[in-house]
Structures are given as C-alpha cells and as structure tokens.
Amino acid sequence: MLRKNTGVEGNIRKLFAKESLMKTLRYISILAVVFSFLIMSCAQFPKEQQEPAQLSNLTFGVVKSKIIKGQTTQEEILKIFGSPNIITKNKNNDEVWNYSKMSYRATSGEDNRTGIFWNGSRAVSTTTTASFDLIVIFDKNDVVIDYSVISAKF
Is the pTM of this model over 0.85? Predict the structure, then answer.
C-alpha cells in the first residue's frame, strides 16, 4: 500500500526542497552581484586626442640658449624664430618684436557604465590652454638690448 506524504513527514520533505531552492537562489544572486561589478569596472574613457605636430623654436630653452644680449642680431632672430607677430617701437624709439604662441587642447567623450539594473554614461571633458610670448628689444644697430619671456599654462 502506498502512503501519501501527509502530516509531519510531508512537511519535512517540502522544507528540505525549499532550503535547496533558497541555497540555489542565494548563489545565483551572489554571482549576479559579482558579475555586475566586473561589468562596471570596464568603463571606457576617451582616448587622448592627438594634436598635429607643429614644429616651433619658440620655447624657453631655445630662447635662453640662442639669444645673447648685446650680441644676437635681428637677422639671427629671424632665422631662429621667423617673422614676429608684432613690430613696434618703445618710448626710446627702439624696435620691439613680439612673438606669440598659443595652444589649446581639448579632450572629450564619455565613460560607459553598464550594470544589471542600470545602463548609462556620463560626459568626460578636459581642456588645457598654454601661451608663450617672447618680447625682444633691439638697439639702433639691430642688436638685442633685452628680451623677456611670458609663459602660462591653465
């Protein structure tokens, strides 16, 4: 004669079946959390944009090594730096040459964040501006009297 699972014995079997299911669900939820953290750690940041290479002698090192007060001539300055941006005269009627170089670099993009319960991204942007000014003062014989450099980066 077959016995039906009734009473205490049936309840015990149901309880063991529920515990096994709960353990399985617990392992699945732990794996889901670990997997979502792994996915979130794969955020992509923008690659730094390459700006075209622009050759310029207008650097502090070149200025310091090539310009000698009382010796360097306008002709030598032209060979090193090219034509100035501005040519003026000061209150002593000395010729003043101004060289300016400005650079601007911008990087933008987004980092993608993906998870089991959300999907989204945020904007990422950086900018850098740099300026370099060289001011050269010449005497009546076209020889450097003085020079100054102004450099800023922000």
Answer: no
